[in-house]
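TA notes. Do not distribute before section.
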Amino acid sequence: MWEPEKTEKQVTAAAQHPDAALIAANGVQFDRDTILLEHLLGPAVRERLLGRALLKWDCYDALMESNLIFTTSQVLVPRWALAQAGESDRRFSVSSDWDLYLRLARDHPFVFLSERLVRWRYLDTSASGPRELRELRWAADCIPILREELRRGRDGRADRIRGLIEKACQRTAYAAFVYGERHDRRWARRYLLGMWRRHGSGAFLIYLVAILVPPRVRDVLRRLARKVTDGEQPN
């Protein structure tokens, strides 16, 4: 849901900063009468926006760490910028926005508006799914997007992007393991196996093995590992 003045304020900002490839407004996420999120901009943006109405920022490096914009409803993209970057990549069913933002940010700054001009309704039936699964569904796209960025990104960032890919694999594998323990072990096993086959990271294989092992056996192995780490002899 857009506030009545949203488009006007973004068009004004675009006119004032004609080199900006994207204008993003702040907003809130809500569910019925409850505000779930007070901001729809990432922490890195909010820190720089503090006490300011507008931030112009070359945010490519920060954007590689995570998507700084929570929903495409916040965004205005000038036609010239979209013509340069190209359309959304349909291979990425839930994170094509982040892929597009990375392409836009590679050569141009973004403008962020602190004013909350968007109200984003939470629905567990959306493309991203329920809250418990969103990180895992996003990751299925985000890791390939980082691999694409490794191929086409700015010079001198290859090692950093490789590190981000491995970090994303480790974080995602652990999140899938936790989801399996709390909600659906069968789904988590299929997810971990699929991600391991797709990306080859040992993190997915380790947590796949962990979720296949019964909890009691896992607790025994954990205690033995702790004793070995502490220099004790296991009984």
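Switch to the second chain here.
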Amino acid sequence: MNYIKVKDKDNLIRDVETNAIVSVDIQGYNNYIETYKKIYQETQKINKLENDVNEIKSDLDEIKNLLRDLKNGSN
């Protein structure tokens, strides 16, 4: 493949065949990937916490219903 440097842009090159501009900023790419991974992991944690809270709420509703049944059964 043939590339030429993009004027005044140290981290960009142009593919002569496709006219596409390609970034050669490896550090910037690696930083992006690391940031993406952190955000993804945080999102996964939040989703798990939301699921856990919903499960606890469901369990509490079930306990309340059982307590009501016990109370109504003893009358």
